[in-house]
Fold each of these.
Amino acid sequence: MKKPLVIGHRGAAAYAPENTMASFQKALTLGAGGIEIDVQMTKDGRLVICHDETVDRTTDGSGAIQALTLKEIQMLDAGSWFSENFRGEKIPVLEELLDFLRGRDILLNIELKNGIVLYRGLEEKVLEALRIYHMEHYTILSSFNHYSLLRLKELNPRIKTGVLYVAGLVEPWEYARRIGADALHPIYYSVLPEIVTGAQVHQMPIYTYTVNEMKDLERIFSLGVAGIITDYPDRGKIAADKVFRKD
């Protein structure tokens, strides 16, 4: 069994304000082999890393990202809601993280947040940023909007894409192949032994989210998934090491 990858969810969201540079740095410190992020687009067409379509929950401001300029967003404090120790953290632009990761052997999982808000040109802009920073081969792009995955493949057939989904899919590897995707990204409680076995037979890796409890981490790692996405990269690493030693 190949040792699975531990991917930090929004960085290390249990230890630092999610989707900030502090969180990404913490994830690497804790041993993550990958980082998962969310990308939205500002009013002036810039790519920012934020899970929600608004800034209300994770900053001291309010409003929809699509209605705010980058300058307005970067004036906000994205850290103190989590802890005073992180006061002054900002919502980063995608390019800031790409520059930070460039030259590192780290998988970057970018979720395109274009399900609630349909950002025109989001796929093109993300692909262009990856091209400029030479990060295409270190990145997998995922989305709950599977039309977006089709668009990505249309623009760049070589880019890796992952199918995000919640409910159980019948033979999900067949669906993924049909839309040209390279991986399955199911929620963790829908990861069953027969799904993992079928995916392995059809050479379709599974990266599941968001797995935080040790018992769940160990169970899912033991099934043979390619990786897990977790708020606790340190727990993920401990669980992966434990299961891998048993092999």
Note: Residues 56 and 62 are 4 Å apart (CA to CA).
Amino acid sequence: MSHTPTRSDFDQYMTPNYSPQQVIPVRGEGSRLWDQEGREYIDFAGGIAVNSLGHCHPVLVNALKAQADKLWHLSNVYTNEPALKLARALVERTFADKVFMCSSGGEANEAALKLARRWAVEHHGEHKDKIISFSQSFHGRTFFTVSVGGQPKYSQGFGPVPGGILHATYNDLDSVRALVGDDTCAIMVEPMQGEGGIVPATPEFLQGLRDLCDAHDALLVFDEVQTGVGRSGELYAYKNYGVVPDILTSAKSLGGGFPVGAMLTTDAIATSLAIGTHGSTYGGNALASAVALAAIEHIDTPEVLAGVKKRHELFREHLETINRKHGVFQEIRGMGLLIGAQMAPEYEGQAKDILPLAIDEGLMALIAGPNVLRMAPSLVIPEADIEEGMARLERAIAKLVAKA
């Protein structure tokens, strides 16, 4: 007899490091989802900025199906056509000359950090090993990346953290100047902090980091796992600022829902990843590469990117309208379709309370810490879905206010 999984199965069979909502979605199309009971939801969460073209977009489905009949996986003993096509597409569209492929953002950031350290040792010596990151940053869940991330709660309880990691204050260049020196090998930064509260960098801050790296022979690493592949309204957020990094990491929207990651860099830096120095079993997987190529080619068009910027304004207008009525937000911020609404002081820490209320109204959303409601929908979400989703959000917030 077949068994229909329930939410209680999660508690029985899976490790308790997550606490998912009670509903179990079983089908998606575009920016809408349906659960086991057939109830419909509008998706403002986007798989945490992953589902760049929504659910089951025909461009991605067709790419996956076509590749599924050809070749799934080899190993890095060989290469394959989809991986080579994806690498070329990324190089032609960015500052980069070389691409390392992997399966996730955490892997991409791990590769970036290892490359930065190895490059520094090879070119300057063992003393040049310091990595500067920022408080409230997030770079992944490997032990190295979670230590570089500026949220200690994610690294506590696992023993001694890797050394040589310093944390400055985001958007505060003086705090970086106080830490940077000739022993600095890299500064790692998100052009917009995601898990840290949807906080965009100022242009002066990113340019200042570029100047400090140049002055101290350090590498500037942009973590674009969450901001990349159209999320900011440009293919990569660095293009909004005109500040070019030495290394860039990409994942999430890159695969449109298929697990894939990439690290991009220049010829001069890439030489430090000599044969055998790093690897990824699934990196360059043919299925993942075929889907990611389809996503990149569809998203990196004037129509889609301009649409992201237009939709940003629609989200902001609706959120401001809701706030004029209910007064729950202190600030609305973000770039493109990565948007955060910080709770007002009287609703401090209550962002998470909106999520189950939104589910009850048929809307899926996110938080970025306890005090910021986050939205990261499909880059091509229909305007009608934005309108209806915001109506549902307004009803959820009205319930929150009524409880206060």
Note: The longest strand covers residues 329-335.
Amino acid sequence: MPTTSSSVAGLAADPNRPAVVDIWWWITSGSAPVDAPSVLSPAELAAAARLPRQRSQEYVVYRAAVRRTLGRLLDVPAASLVFGRRPCPECGDLEHGPPRVIHPVNPWWISISHTNGCAMLAIAPHEIGVDVERQRPIWSADLAAKVLTAAECAELSTIGDPVRRDRGFLACWTRKEATLKAVGTGIVTDLSALESHPATRGPVHLTTTVPGAPTNWQVHDLALPDPYLGSLAFPAAAGSRIRFREVTTGPDGELGR
């Protein structure tokens, strides 16, 4: 893919056009660029060191790519970015609210997701949530009862092919997790109370009851290559358009799209 550059100017809101949600995704299973660790914070390097080797390498790849992408958008060196959190919409705590870049100062909302082999970053002028999962055997009646609504259980239980049923379960999961990340709480709520409409092709609308957050969310299924599934959520009233791009990382750390 050709190498291109972006800047925050390209994300600036135009009052005459819908807001834009920008999403980048990349494969993380390759070797890390030689200089990737140099852009990570001490806390990120410490987190990587605590992981098994393969997971540690993937962590370095995706965190470096997140930093390089955001650094380009905000026109600062990737290593200079400082991450923090917004207040939790339920309790106001800064320890577990949605993530944000606190340096440099900027108005953008971000969401980051990572699964085995794939990672994703979203940025928007409003609440945003993304989730990516790798398809795997996961279905069980006990797990379904804990995280699915009665309607979702009934829909997926009729699927005889175990691979399709696993995919249906993960589609429900990514829709729910993306929504709750957009809300700002993450999956600390009762997932079995959130209806994700598995029989309906996206976009779908999910309704939440978290105080201080929008109630209605528009959720899109993202077109990722097998074996990955992803979802994007943002306030239903936003009416935003979506730009979805793959990122490739060269051995020198240069990003291409």
Note: The mean pLDDT is 88.
Amino acid sequence: MSKVMIIGANGSIAQLVTQQLLATTTDELVLYLRRSQQLANYADNPRVTLVTGSSSDTDLLARAMVDVDVVYSSLGNGVHLDEQTQHVIDAMRQAGKTRFIYISALGAHHEVPGKFGDWNDAIIGGELVGFRKTAQLVAESGLTYTEIRPAWLTNANEVAYETTDLVTGFKGTEVSRASVADFAVKVITQPNTYQNASVGLNKPNTDGDRPSWY
């Protein structure tokens, strides 16, 4: 049994990760979010600790993770992600934690090729600045990290994905949130895998100039 901290626990992918961990493991969870009442359904679960706090509160983050084994961050968009993630890194150093898994975005390393890469940069270029800064500071942090870079997200009720790395480049244009959660849970429960790695996730056979709904 491990203890896992989920930062940004009210996010859609984070909630799927929480549900899967509770259903398929014996792990204990620390759910950290701005308004813990949003996850009040877990208040009486003996395996769950709810913590209300800001991602910018380094001291509270450090206290909340004092006895956890893995820190998983599912913070919001990329505009201020580097600033938020720096607080998490500082808290992990303060608490003596090393294993960090976090959600990033496709394009965080200029790795998306062709017309789709150009389209992606045009649509979310403002956010990508923060994702790119975050990738750099995490890589230089000394933590053992896994960066997860999903394609454009869907709510499809399916787990169907393939992985890519920065050498092979990015494939596909979309992937389900359920797929991202499934991969995150695999790394959380097998923390010796994908160490110091940046992993792209996409649904197979979704290559194109943009996601199917555009």
Note: The chain is about 35% helix and 20% strand.
